[in-house]
User: What shape does this take?
Amino acid sequence: MALSQSEILAWLREERPERLRELYARANAVRRENVGGAVHLRGLIEISSHCERQCMYCGLRKANRSLERYRMTREEIEQCALTAVQLGYGTVVMQAGEDDALTAEWIAEIVRWIKRETPLAVTLSLGERAKDELKLWRNAGADRYLLRFETSDPYLYRTIHPQRFAGRADRLMLLKELKALGYEAGGGVMVGIPGQSYASLAQDLLAFRDFDLDMIGIGPYIAHPSTPLGSGQLRPRIDPAEQAPNDELTVYKMIALARILCPSANIPSTTALATINRQHGRKQGLQVGANVVMPNLTPVKYRRLYQIYPDKACIEESATDCNQCLRGQIRAIERFPGRGVGGRGEIEVDTGVLVASAPPQFVQIGEQGYGQ
Ligand code: SAM
Ligand code: SF4
Assistant: This one.
């Protein structure tokens, strides 16, 4: 759907509730028409909190010595996948810091096992890994890869996301590689990063559209006191009038605009959103355009150690508790839990029967550069 950069900017600055209701109603209608009423459940397994990176915003950064680290065993991960099947989820998401001890072959073996033993789709979110590793995992059966690009502002990106290897492709380039390998590719951003302007959020939304992302993760930036950005030690310069807020309202606007610009994408209502509004955040995200939630399957003993940001929602609940809670929230807003794998463009009806599947659009992306 056509929305110019200036229209997007005007929506991001809009504060009148009656106008915002119009935006949300429009996004909800686009969601209904293009991905239906199902809310897909993707079981999240946080397989390792070790990380070689020094992202300035994230509690898992290597320099954060105050964090006790863990790495799940293969058996534990496979047990989580079996729990996902029992709970009726269509997908598991294996997420971790950029952990070199997760060797390419070890991950590939787990992916092969899940694909052989279960009907689950497998999503990986293991950071910026080498192209041959991404290819190996795709050949092993991995369906999707999540790699948020965090911000499309190149100056802010370099400031908050130091490179690990000189000359390695950045995240936007890697998203192109992932698509070329046949993954469903997921990008996304944090909202309200210090130094992030309204204009750069508008640019992020245009990048979602121009990169034709299959999945778009949008959540608030939450300050972590043990990071340079969260402690205030690093302060990217910006005119205060241009600084985008990291509040829930701005996240709702971003989700709604992403839905309008990318009608068939899978868009989660994120845990970070549930963290800043525990009671209503997830439900409201689903009511302004989102169609995915990510119940946590990580064993409870590890959850509080995967501390990306403080006071994360859902760290005490068991997998069964998370499942029941989320299904209750989905029903409370008169939607229904998806039963299939929930690939891009799939529409389910409430019986759980798949009625339509749009072919994935593997277009040549980014030839013209994003945001033009
Ligand atoms: N290491 C992988 C990566 O960086 O893609 C996956 C794990 S990483 C913790 C997943 C996402 O957490 C990041 O893409 C980032 O958007 C989000 N994140 C990290 N720190 C955050 C913070 N302080 N507030 C909100 N989200 C944060
Ligand atoms: Fe590591 Fe990902 Fe956190 Fe960066 S965002 S420090 S890569 S876990």
